[in-house]
């Protein structure tokens, strides 16, 4: 690919399954200008393959990617708790539940833009307060969509407490907590 497209900067991929995506990403090497990948309609991935696919994606092109953006119709991915990707500055990702956030935050400590969609209902009140969320010290733009989970003000404060320099944030949440409107 580097001989055919030596100046390629951005790449968009549409409707791939996890095998096709992994095979394609394995061909990306020595593309010195390629820093951004957009994925649209990534086919459903079984739970066992989610960490592997995300690792392959975040390490693609010899760890030179800085921006990975998945659309909201793409499959959920998950992070192996020990992985770290200092190269990732922008990330839009679909994940299953709030308990996936600590691994994600720890995996991308240099991220500046983070857009997370949590797709499953995991209504266990106080769940976020029981887990340790690493601070994202460089994050300035945070977006969270989680309409199947019923959030409390305490949980949101814990989450926002891990974002010390955030300048912009967008929340699309469900809640029964009256303190959000009082």
TrEMBL record:
Gene3D superfamilies assigned to the protein according to its UniProt record, in alphabetical order: Ribonuclease Inhibitor
InterPro entries, per the entry: LRR_dom_sf
Name listed for the protein in its UniProt record: Uncharacterized protein
Source organism (scientific name): Didymodactylos carnosus
